[in-house]
Amino acid sequence: MSGSSPRRRARRRRSARRLLLLALVLAVTAGVVYAGIRDRPTGDVDAARPSPSPSSTPSSSVDLSQLPIERGSFCDQLDERNVEAALDSPVSDTSHYDSGDRVVLAPGVTDVSHEYDCTFSSADGTEARVWVFAEPVTAAVGRTIVRDARAEKGCTVRPDPPTFGTPSVATACRTTKPAARTVTLRGLFGDAWLSCRLSTPGATAAAETIQRADQWCVRVATTLGARP
Question: What global pTM score does this model have?
Fold first, then answer.
């Protein structure tokens, strides 16, 4: 009987953490729903509706920096419903790899990976990706990564994203060949450097891409951080 009390306390701590993480996700989701309702036109329901604007307050108030992210394989932990919500359609293709795998890291460049990556694509070219470095990252190295990300060409630093680790950075980028919008959140969770990205076709409104990216990345981080 001497070991029953610690086990109960551990279960209670895990349950409390999961409830906190769920509350964070619901806060972001509620803000998105409110923004969509607020921006609906009051005229003809068949009239063209503008894309909903993201609600900055719920996103910027979410602080995920204390989540215990592990540096290991995690694709099977992700919820398919969250993936499809990010893609706004069913998954048509996946491209996952683990640290130590030989993979195409850039066009024409194949090498051994030093990260764990989960990539999901839809038929229209939308891509939701998450990856974590296999090696531990210090705060000093994290600040260097943040500085480099802030200097990327074609990108702007977002002023009010969720706090996605410490240090962290969120960028919104445009490319022309192919035309696409890319929103990336990345940051340090303990010694784990986690990056989360959503890329949409160029015709997608910037506000919609940011909104879906925030939801996707918050849900990913809370899912991975809730693992026992």
Answer: 0.74
What does the alpha-carbon distance between residue 2 and residue 102 come to, in Å, rounded to a whole number? 49
Q: How far apart are CA 11 and CA 194, in angstroms?
A: 27
3-state helix, strand, coil in the chain (%, to 5): 35, 25, 35
Query: Residue 193 is which amino acid?
Result: W
11-24 per-residue burial string, b: 16 or more CB within 10 A, e: under 16: eeeeeebeeebeeb
The Cα–Cα gap between 89 and 92 comes to: 9
Contact status, residue 119 vs residue 104, Cβ threshold 8 Å: no
Stated length of the chain = 228
**pLDDT tens across 196-208, in order?**
999 999 888 999 9
Whose tokens are 């204390």? That residue is: 66
Token pair belonging to 29: 């989701």
